[in-house]
Write a structure and sequence with these properties.
InterPro entries: Aminotrans_V_dom, Cys_dSase_SufS, PyrdxlP-dep_Trfase, PyrdxlP-dep_Trfase_major, PyrdxlP-dep_Trfase_small. Its EC number is 2.8.1.7. It comes from Prototheca wickerhamii. It is a single chain. This protein is α/β, with parallel strands linked by helices. The chain is 37% helix and 17% strand. It has twelve helices and 19 strands. It has a seven-stranded mixed sheet, sandwiched between helices. The chain has a four-stranded antiparallel sheet with strand order 15-16-19-18. Helix 9 runs parallel beside helix 12. The relative contact order is 0.17. The structure holds pyridoxal-5'-phosphate and 2-acetamido-2-deoxy-beta-D-glucopyranose. 2-acetamido-2-deoxy-beta-D-glucopyranose (NAG) binds next to helix 3.
Length: 410
Amino acid sequence: MRAVGGVQAGNGVASDCRSCLCPAVTFKQRIQGRPLVYLDNAATSQKPRQVLQALDEYYREYNSNVHRGVHALSARATREYELAREKVAAFIGARSALEVVFTRNASEAVNLVAQTWGAQHVHAGDEIVVSVAEHHSNLVPWQLLAQRTGAVLRHVPLTRDTQELDLVALVHASNVLGGVTPAETVCEMARAVGARVLLDCCQSVPNRPVDVQALGADWIVASGHKMCAPTGIGFLWGRYDLLESMPPWMGGGEMIEDVFLDHSTFAPPPTRFEAGTPSIAQAIGLGAACDYLASLGMARIEEHERQLGTHLFEQLRSINDVEVYGPPPTAKLGRMALATFNVRGIHPTDISAILDQSGVAVRSGHMCTAPLHRELGLPASVRASPYFYNSLAEIDVFIEALKDAISFFR
Ligand SMILES: Cc1ncc(COP(=O)(O)O)c(C=O)c1O
Ligand SMILES: *[C@@H]1O[C@H](CO)[C@@H](O)[C@H](O)[C@H]1NC(C)=O
């Protein structure tokens, strides 16, 4: 599957949205003879031409290792790799590019914090607070840390007050409920009791302006592949003084200052946390993705997605026997442009399989949130997740296909 940036018309589905960003990416794909309606963006996004071009350019023109050679190619690769770090830093409002650690994905970024800061600061009896809505990526690393240290893992509803916390690890925008965590308030409350906060921004950074300084968190994590970049690249942002206090994680090349036979000294952050040859092309691709999203304007993307999300929610809610989870679009903090739902009496897998026959790609299963599904009393669900390049007309194609699917099963 391939998305091509440009100003061509959409994918064949007529567009009728007001703040339309959909021509920015054009799908040439047809599925089962129908124009593809890709609504699985919360899992991974399509890639615009600008990002594909950045990858192509790296491999064709200056493929080389970073930080290692003085020859021209290596110097250019290093420059572009570090420039990508600056682009990510600017995209999230970081004070400095030195606060951005490239990881392979968000899961790795969470594990990095759990196994460095966590291993040093979390002790038996300490509390690690997560929500019941966490993605497995922001839950399992803390379970492992709690098991190793004897810390207590607590799962609270997002609105409940807590005291004497050591660490709060919360999802910023849920990949299932679509709800948004009042992050500024949580960070303030946590600070008041001396706790550190890690925010899982995998679903917020791609879809709305995120400013790490305004949020007030200690760390955030995100994944490149959900924001137009390739797989194999994600990042950890952390306050520099905190990163500086964190011990090395994985050992190897790049992350050292000097190496002796029996011991080593370590580079300052972010290099300290980037052992081995990094995902060079992917990082450069992430830089290009930040440029691309910034050129569209994150506020514009947020507004377009608000329209898509509201339409999606309202249309789904108007269908008999459909239950949509999470807060309504009128909730104080709004709602992300995704809708997770079930149709009474029809298995989610059957729904997504029959939607696929209409060229509509949605996700079904537990979306890596098994505990949340248990909490909701659901074995599974279906999720439709548009991105900025989707149109209101595509939402309508999905809704019509869903109605057809329901009548097929009745
Ligand atoms: C909210 C949330 N957190 C974490 C992740 C994990 O990201 P990755 O698989 O890139 O590590 C995802 C996506 O899968 C997600 O939606
Ligand atoms: C995501 O990170 C994990 C942990 O470091 C790694 O094992 C996995 O290969 C990564 N995925 C990709 C696509 O790079």
